[in-house]
């Protein structure tokens, strides 16, 4: 990318592109600065640290999630979130790390809360989606570098069936009244 004036949005766009090309382990502030043809210190005009940059990248990844309309089901929103996470290399890991630190927007949780009704259930479902998507991405990466064994179960093989089974289980459990009261 040519040197010149950069803003937070253009830096985030390039960081997402770089993430998709090289993966999270190789996405560094130094590498991003080199792509932008600036000194690494120039990035700190836009982001206080790498975690803040990753939060902006996570928000961009999750911006693909459609907002629920009346009558939208849990599975439709959950699949939309999963697909957004899987659309970028290491997307689930980036979103998981920013979620763990409570950085970035709550777009996914808000969409889930709209369809499940409460914040705790939305967070629990989001954590299932993050875990499933991270497992799938790690397995895909292992396969791409030849690290997966032939005898290991491929979680991408039954991706939709396994994912939807988890969503159905969540929906069934969340519909049962809490007996601890």
Task: Give structural notes.
The chain has 181 residues and is mainly alpha-helical. It has one domain (8-174): Tetracycline Repressor, domain 2 (Orthogonal Bundle), CATH 1.10.357.10. It contains 9 helices and no strands. The protein has helices spanning 8-22, 29-36, 40-43, 50-62, 74-86, 91-100, 107-116, 119-144, 159-174. α1 packs across α4 and α8 runs antiparallel to α9. It is globular, with a radius of gyration of 18 Å. The model has no long low-confidence stretch (mean pLDDT 88).
Compile the SSE list and pairings.
Blueprint: H1 8-22, H2 29-36, H3 40-43, H4 50-62, H5 74-86, H6 91-100, H7 107-116, H8 119-144, H9 159-174
Q: In the CATH scheme, what's the topology name?
A: Tetracycline Repressor, domain 2
Query: How many distinct domains?
Result: 1
> Helical stretch count?
9
Structural class: mainly alpha
Question: Which stretches are poorly predicted, pLDDT < 50 over at least 5 residues?
Answer: none
- Beta-strand level of the residues, as a percent range? under 5%
Globally, the shape reads: globular
Q: How does the major sheet shape up?
A: none
Number of strands: 0
What does the average pLDDT come to?
88
* CATH top-level class: Mainly Alpha
- In the CATH hierarchy, the architecture is Orthogonal Bundle
Estimated helix fraction? 55-70%
In angstroms, what is the radius of gyration? 18 Å
Q: What is the rounded distance between the termini?
A: 59 Å
Give the CATH superfamily. Tetracycline Repressor, domain 2
Query: What's the helix-strand series?
Result: HHHHHHHHH
């Amino acid at each position: 990318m040519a040197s010149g004036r950069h803003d937070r949005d253009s830096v985030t766009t390039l960081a997402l592109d770089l993430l998709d090309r090289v993966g999270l382990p190789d996405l560094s502030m130094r590498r991003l600065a080199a792509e932008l043809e600036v000194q690494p210190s120039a990035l700190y005009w836009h982001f206080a640290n790498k975690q803040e940059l990753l939060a902006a990248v996570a928000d961009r990844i999750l911006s693909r999630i459609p907002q629920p309309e009346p009558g939208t089901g849990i599975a439709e929103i959950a699949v939309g979130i999963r697909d957004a996470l899987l659309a970028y290399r290491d997307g689930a890991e980036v979103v998981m790390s920013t979620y763990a630190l409570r950085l970035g927007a709550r777009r996914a949780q808000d969409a889930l809360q709209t369809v499940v009704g409460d914040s705790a259930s939305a967070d629990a479902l989001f954590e299932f989606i993050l875990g499933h998507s991270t497992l799938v991405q790690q397995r895909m990466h292992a396969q791409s570098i030849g690290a997966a064994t032939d005898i290991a179960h491929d979680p991408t093989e039954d991706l939709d069936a396994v994912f939807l089974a988890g969503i159905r289980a969540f929906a069934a459990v969340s519909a049962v009244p809490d007996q601890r009261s």
